[in-house]
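User: Could you go from structure to sequence for me? I need the amino acid at each position, not a summary. Structure tokens:
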């Protein structure tokens, strides 16, 4: 069996995220994960939420071997094979399936701003009535002082790519509103990250 890729950050944050998802999500449903990366998150969440079916995706197929390896290692039957999904292309997936939840971690700050608007539009289109978009990562907030760690992280991101950077939560909320999504709940998680729940208006 191929060895899966390993992300130290995903390893650290997977349990706090799962703990919050257990509070947020209903008992069962179907979830679409955007930017699945190594596959650590989707495998962990699928094991911790066995009544949910998970569809991992990524912008390209390079990480699919790793995603499949994490799923196989856990002997999971509630994770579908990964699919290529570019948030900038519409529609995201063939067919008319809708999802009870869309989950996206650590994409908004390491991609151009246009992908945030595309994430909101695409999520609104593929969410079932009563469904929710869950985003996770660092944010700047008007009324909350930015931690020194996030200040340094933001500077390092912008040095790598001027189109990257930690986004203002209020700016993200405006893009969400244009797509018909409203910020429902804000959860502060470890390491100055937020888990935000967006509901379909």
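Assistant: Here is the amino acid at each position, in order:
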């Amino acid at each position: 069996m191929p060895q899966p890729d390993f992300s130290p950050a995903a390893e650290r944050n997977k349990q706090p995220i799962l703990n919050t998802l257990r509070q947020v999500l209903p008992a069962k449903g179907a979830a679409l994960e955007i930017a699945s990366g190594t596959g650590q998150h989707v495998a962990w969440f699928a094991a911790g939420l066995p009544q949910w079916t998970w569809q991992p995706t990524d912008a390209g197929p390079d990480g699919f071997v790793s995603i499949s390896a994490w799923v196989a290692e856990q002997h999971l039957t509630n994770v579908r094979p990964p699919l290529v999904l570019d948030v900038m292309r519409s529609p995201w997936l063939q067919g008319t399936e809708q999802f009870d939840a869309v989950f996206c971690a650590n994409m908004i700050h390491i991609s151009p701003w246009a992908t945030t608007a595309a994430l909101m539009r695409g999520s609104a289109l593929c969410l079932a009535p009563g469904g929710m978009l869950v985003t996770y990562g660092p944010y700047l907030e008007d009324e909350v002082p930015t931690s020194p760690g996030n200040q340094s992280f933001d500077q390092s991101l912008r040095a790598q790519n001027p189109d990257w950077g930690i986004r203002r939560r209020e700016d993200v909320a405006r893009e969400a509103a244009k797509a018909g999504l409203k910020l429902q709940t804000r959860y502060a998680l470890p390491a100055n990250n937020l888990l935000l729940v967006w509901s379909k208006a």
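One structural detail worth keeping in mind: The first strand starts at residue 29 and ends at 34.
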